[in-house]
Amino acid sequence: MGLLALGISGLSPLSLDTMSSLLLLAFALKALEVTHRRDALVVVFTGFFLVAVQFLYNQSIAAALYGIACLTLLTAALIAVQESPGKKVGDHIKLAGSMLLQCLPLMIIVYLFFPRLPPLWAVTLPTDQATSGISDQLAPGDIAGLTQSDATAFRVTFKGARPARNRLYWRGLVLNHFDGRTWSQFSTPLPVEELKQVLRVDLPQSSSKPGVLEYEVIYEKTRRNWLFSLSTVVAWTGDAFAGFDYRLMAERALSSPVAFTLYSDIDAARDAPMNRALHRLMLGLPQEQNPRARTLAKKWRAQSGSDIAYAQKMMAYFRDQNYFYTLRPPLAGQRDTIDQFLFESRRGFCSHYAGSFTYMMRAAGIPARVVLGYQGGEWNEGGDFLTVREYDAHAWSEIWLEGQGWVRFDPTRMVAPERVEQNLQTAVREEGSFLEQAMFSPIRIPWLSNLRQKWDAVQYGWRRWVLGYDMATQSRWLEKWMGKVTVVRVALVFGGLFSLILLAWLFVLGYLRPTDAASPALKLYRKLCLKLEKQGLRRPVDMTPGQFGRMAVDQFPDQGASIREATQLYEEISYAVLPVEQEIQLLQRLKAVIGRV
Hints:
Layout: H1 2-7, H2 16-32, H3 37-54, H4 61-82, H5 89-113, E1 137-138, E2 152-158, E3 169-175, E4 177-178, E5 183-184, H6 192-199, E6 213-219, E7 226-227, E8 229-230, E9 233-237, E10 240-242, E11 248-250, E12 258-264, H7 276-281, H8 291-304, H9 307-320, E13 324-325, H10 337-345, E14 347-348, H11 350-363, E15 368-375, E16 378-380, E17 385-389, E18 393-401, E19 405-409, H12 412-415, H13 417-421, H14 424-427, H15 449-467, H16 471-482, H17 487-508, H18 520-534, H19 545-555, H20 560-575, H21 580-596
Parallel strand pairs: 13-14
Antiparallel strand pairs: 1-5, 2-6, 2-17, 3-8, 3-15, 4-5, 6-12, 7-11, 9-12, 10-11, 15-18, 16-17, 18-19
Helix pairs in contact: 2-3, 3-4, 4-5, 5-17, 8-9, 8-11, 18-20, 18-21, 19-20, 20-21
């Protein structure tokens, strides 16, 4: 039945999901038929492997705590399998926890110093829908749907002063083709590897220029290659490349949280040369659509006298006419979507304004394109970093101006300046549509705001110092701590720390401590002899406890009863065969009697 259910689940036969499901199924079925120790060992060791497999899917703090709990229980089960029956489950769990705590220092040392080598083989990770809401296409109303997600897209730490909020335009994708309804990168969708070849351009990196902003970005898992950065990026550390359209892309899809250090000159001009093919691409529009918009664009361009004057006239038109910024735009038709928005509905989100502005520029003969990314972010005062969430997704336009290059225009700012100056929640406050499908999000509950920011700081630390500890981070940390990093130095430090841990283990386990094989009763009797010696009576080495007891009673008659009882109890415990419970009771009586001497 399990195999049948797996077969009709729709999973690819050779995917990681299918293999993991088969392993889980085998683990569950094998656990039901455990009759011998060998069966139990198979179940336990399979469980150890499953703990590792779950980190391929989730590497959060909760997943780590869950993995530790599973590891402790599996270790306790392994101990129970090797021992004779009779001990309590709690004793096994306690011993397992103690063993794992003893291993913790070694795990930390290995984590810090062992080389972060690339894998010997690649595992195809699940290919479900990317977790990032930014896709490579933009249709009217697309980005509005992202406002219902408060998931984190990435977090940023600035090395110096952070820019003003209205300058935080996180560039991701550039959309060049318009089919009448949807903006896309090119007319034909390209596979990622081919897209990388088309976009890639070799740029000299120059992070030391005056005015360059340095910041570290930790991107969440998206299973895409998009990297979001402040334009213009002039240098970076990490496995990425720059595109001719000033975007930054990762060489590999982000299958786990990853950190990049970026350097941006946000005042730099985007003045890449405009060749004939690119010029034609940036003017492309479908024929025989949106006649009203085309007519208006040609009329205004003729009246304006220059490209920049025309662009400013269009921006002023959005500001001065009855246009509204809304997360609930009316549904667009299949044709003449620009005419419908500009002359009929006049209600839309950033995708409507960016798309229509870009269309109007192209219709007037001005090269233009749509840029997708994020705008703004939430500053975490406690953690001193910026969190950019999915609802910060944004679209804006760029037009080509002779002598200036690509210049950013954000028509949304004309209609709803609060969206850029403050945040999306402020911009749509009266409409009440912000996170309307996530009513219990902490972002919507004011009294949870401080707690949410603290938890966000904890998660950021986890992403930065644990999941983000890659080869480059390890090299920087070792250079800062050790100076010049060589194999000999690393081996000496690693060996020295391992030796200290080994000595600590030996001491804790008792191998380096002098052992006292005396029984509890003998230890108490020695305490009695020491008390009597302090009072002037020393026990001869060749004298039995009974003889010494009689001598002590004669010399200290006022303590005779206690000395006599203590001697009798010691002899009974030492020479009689007693049940464990009775022996414990007699030891407690002996301790109390000696205390009275």
